[in-house]
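User:
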Amino acid sequence: MFDFLKKNKTLPTFAPLVTDMHCHLLPLVDDGSKSLEESLEVMATMKQCGFEEIRLTPHFNYPRFPNKADDIKERYKNFCSEVEANKGERQIPRMTSVTGEFQVGDGFAEYMESGQLLTYRFSDPKRGSEKGLLLIEFSLHQKRMGLEDTVFKLQMEGYDVILAHPERYPYFDSRDKLLEQFKEQGVYFQINILSLDGFYSDAAQKKAFEYIENGWVEFLGTDMHNVMYAQALRHASANKKIIKLLEKNEFENRHLAVGQY
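Assistant: Predicted structure:
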């Protein structure tokens, strides 16, 4: 007779993560959201799916998206004000920082040398490297020479490295020696939630689950871009395999600190 009470206590699927640490909802800076209204609609869906906090991670990818850190910080500050003024009755996650998704490619060295690498931190001050957690990505099309050297240099300069969506790179698989090397070096891996639901491809979905089974994955992220992605997230929230995975595994998302940027 009390079944309805049990149903009311069921948390949304992604509530255990607390935080989405990879999304592109700062409007008009990359291939993500195109407007304030689109971002608000998407964030409302993310809240319904269980996310309490989000961190914005616009692309830093020269020459396609040649963003600058100071400009992104200013845009983020203005965006936060616009969200508060226009969200109305919508329930949305808290925005707690803006960092970036930095592609290792042309222009990346300039970002390093000019101090424009925006990072996260763990909430526990005893954890993590001096300069924080840096979200990087590689080319989705072909393997660039010297990836291992760049990652090693970042670590030597005081960064913890998070590799975004390794399951989406066609030149990697679950037996790849370079991925094994990265894990031995302490590189964190972040899988896209939508990969787990087959949004990108069957191959990406297969690798996403394999990497998690390998014990390689510390973070999950939505890589949210627009309303279509939000609809896909809602679909993923009903995936029983994903629900079971979140019941069995604890990811590091909830352990990120709230930062100014």
